[in-house]
Amino acid sequence: MPNGRLAVMIDKDIIIEKLKEVKDPELPLVSVIDMGIITGIDLDEKGNVKVVMTPTFAGCPAIEYMKAEIKKKLDELEINSVEVEVNFNVQWNSNMISENGRKLLKDSGFALPARHTGLVQIEMLQKIECPFCGKKNTRLMSAFGATQCRAVHYCDDCMQMFEQIKPV
Amino acid sequence: MNLNPETLSAVKNLIYSTADDHLVLGHRNSEWTGLGPILEEDIAFSSMAQDKLGQALALYQLLNKLGERDPDTIAFTRKENEFRCCHLTEYPIGDYGFSLMRHFLFDEAALLRFDMLSNSGFTELSHIAKKFRGEIKYHVMHAEEWIKQLGNGNEESNRRIQIMFDTVYPLAHGIFEPLENENILIENKIYEGENELEQRWRVRIGKIVKDANIILNETEPKDKHYGGRRGMHTEYLKPLLLEMTEVFSIDPNAEW
Question: What pLDDT does residue A122 have?
Fold first, then answer.
């Protein structure tokens, strides 16, 4: 589409807004922007867009799906081409989940990963706050849950199992 | 980093060994899906399998960037003697104690390996290694928890975990079989080498088994289970590959 005029009207903010419509299929309230997995957006004057994405886990089965969804959504914009590259140049960690993302996760009943300075300590998985009753009388049941990014805990106060987004 | 042909070949060798270990052990771990002794362990082994396959894929993708064939072709069409995995990863799952001990001894080494590689002068490898060590940390956490619990449990659990340690520890030395031309990697600050890795692993394992009340006996020569890095494998790899590639062999374009 050799239409320079339209391409100029597209800027990164519009792309980011559009990417907010692409959700993580394993956490369907949270967008790829809120998960913090979009690590680069390049837009040239001809309207070619390149999006760089980094996986939460190397074996995340949702990567191909999200890649396709990003292409599909951005194709709705007046742009020339879309390329999505997945690489590990920036390594995802749970600190990269946005404030909005944390709020959405909390509202969905997940316990949140503690923010950390780069190294995850075993203590960060112990006595975490129960998302149901707010108390910390909880135990880690398993660091492996329904998806790679979740751990399973049990609250000894309200006697509920709950899931935590793992600190990574 | 521009690699000359000799260095490139040594780097590929390192990546093939590491990736094949993860693919094959990932496949073995997945055999616990549906069979784990308790639900949490079933899920743990299945999740670790998923991580390992993802890690193998990322490494095969890097090989592809370095001029090798695409990941599916690498994973599903090579012959047994083209694989570079160590013997430890090939053995059948055995009873749960065997799988648990293998998971412990292998993942401790994997964490240390990726720790080392996160400082690699070959940037692309260091990026991947930094990612993987965060994932494998959870595997190690899981393994150590069980080893300590069973080692310090009752007489029977200690006796059985000791038998498994005595069985698997000699096998685990095959992880550290020196790689062809690894001196090039050491000289170029790409990788510190299998010997260095083994030293660090021994210190780490020694400390944990002591805490777990397990006795460490060095009985066998450490090269007894070498061969995997040179394409010589146990009788168990071939049937594993036949099973793993069954769908691909019937229809290379199948999607699943």
Answer: 77
